[in-house]
Amino acid sequence: MATTYFTIAPCQYVLCQNEVTMKLYLHQVVQGQPNQNQVAMVPSLQPAGFGTIAVNDWTVIDGPNPSANIVGRAKGVHIQADQANAGWYTSLLIIFEGGRFKGSSLQALGITASTGELAIIGGTGEFKMARGTIKYKIVLNTPNVESIRELNIQAFYTPEIPPAAQGAVTIVNAAGQAPN
């Protein structure tokens, strides 16, 4: 007889959700430039660079100018996954470096081109259990040097209950009754 290694329990209350919207910018500086923040680790000789793998530590800034304030970093990997056009599969973790969200992160992935949308599939800190989207478009592009993408972030997340408030929370079931 197999040992059960998990338990499943119905949620007896509705989790509180917060929504956050942000307009930020992602600054990408290609390999070989001063202040580069991405490097091709596995180059490809295929058409359109199909199969190229690059790692990134892009800056996330609060304005469309490359010298805007740094809000965080987008660390991850992108893989050229389109055989004919620019279509990079991107997995990145946006880590916030200051202000209210310092130390919190959003995990996003999807195919990046000049415009599009990434799926937010998780988060940490303030953004625990985040889900949502990042709609983006290129607002500055200097080929083979740098680009800046405008990021319109919409995410839902479960805020932590402060320890002082935990004793004051009454959990009720769907019928509005406190469990025994």
TrEMBL record:
InterPro entries: Allene_oxi_cyc_Dirigent (IPR044859), Dirigent (IPR004265). It is found in: Secreted, Extracellular space, Apoplast. Its main location: secreted. GO terms for cellular component: apoplast. Keywords: Apoplast, Secreted. It holds the Pfam family Dirigent. Belongs to the plant dirigent protein family. Homodimer. Dirigent proteins impart stereoselectivity on the phenoxy radical-coupling reaction, yielding optically active lignans from two molecules of coniferyl alcohol in the biosynthesis of lignans, flavonolignans, and alkaloids and thus plays a central role in plant secondary metabolism. This is Dirigent protein.
